[in-house]
Amino acid sequence: MNIYIDTSGFLALLDADDDSHLKAKETWVKLISSGDNLICNNYILVETFALVLHRLGFEAVRVFQEDILPVVRIEWVDEFTHNMGINAMLTASRRKLSLVDCVSFELMRRLGLKKVFAIDKHFSEQGFMCIP
Question: What is the pLDDT along the chain (132 residues), one digit of tens a residue?
């Protein structure tokens, strides 16, 4: 099975002080041992690197790069998907709905992905199944 990974899932996994950390860690272990394909896009990487560096520091960035990313397949956002994400964001007209989220929704639909490792309610609002 293919599982999409959102920044919110990565953050919950890396931040021991996050309210969802224990559940995220437990879920991550299950995902890794299940052999599921874990997928994110390069926009998620940029967002995650920036937030992890700002909130948790360089050691957490190193853990993300060396321990987590090697098991994740990266889908590179093309111009069409980028533009679809912008259109979706502008159409939604919601301040807290980011371009990264909208691009992720478009990419997930294009790839036929239904499940996402995310703590972000926007994914469930779009009809995706969030885990944990």
Answer: 999 999 999 999 999 999 999 999 999 999 999 999 999 999 999 999 999 999 999 999 999 999 999 999 999 999 999 999 999 999 998 888 999 999 999 999 999 999 999 998 999 999 999 998
Which 3 state secondary structure label does DSSP give 103?
helix
d(CA 28, CA 70): 14
107 has which bridge partners? none
The domains of the chain, with CATH numbers, are 2-76+113-122 (3.40.50.1010)
SS3 75: strand
